[in-house]
Specification:
Blueprint lengths: L1 E2 L6 E2 L21 H18 L4 E7 L6 E11 L3 E7 L5 E7 L5 E7 L15 H12 L1
Antiparallel strand pairs: 1-2, 3-4, 3-7, 4-5, 5-6
Length: 140
């Protein structure tokens, strides 16, 4: 993941793994997508963490007329106002949605895990310890 220091935009190299992305530490600005992004990461992972082991967090995009359900694999942003959702549809096909922060409506849902043989990890982090450390650092 590359962060452009000039405008805090985020780009990803081809073949990136959004699950293993580490959160960048960016100065807080409540109106930037980076702050909405962090709040979304926390909401998604709090929901995900509370689910039984055989389930994972999924999302339903609620403003597209028909129901689009996907498993979260990552989130991203482009300051000042775009959020990116990365995921996988039930048939295994990839999904990416780029949306303005004022248009975000996603319903968090419980769904069977696609890869129950793998350890359950938080979205956007390699482990729950890494996620918990980031949450604690951001509260300081």
């Amino acid at each position: 993941m590359l962060i452009n220091e000039r405008d805090n935009s985020v780009t990803f190299p081809s073949g990136f793994d959004p699950i293993s992305l580490q959160m960048p530490i960016i100065p807080k600005d409540a109106n930037h997508a980076s702050e909405f992004y962090w709040r979304l990461v926390q909401m998604v992972n709090e929901f995900h963490r509370e689910l039984e082991e055989e389930y994972e967090v999924g999302g339903q995009l609620v403003n597209f007329g028909n129901e689009t359900t996907f498993s979260f694999t990552g989130l991203g942003y482009f300051n000042p106002s775009l959020i990116r959702f990365f995921g996988t549809k039930p048939d295994g096909s990839p999904v990416e949605l780029v949306q303005h922060v004022t248009q975000i409506s996603v319903l968090l849902v419980r769904q069977k895990r696609i890869h129950p043989e793998e350890p359950k990890r938080p979205i956007g982090f390699a482990s729950w310890d890494e996620y918990d450390t980031e949450v604690a650092e951001r509260k300081r």
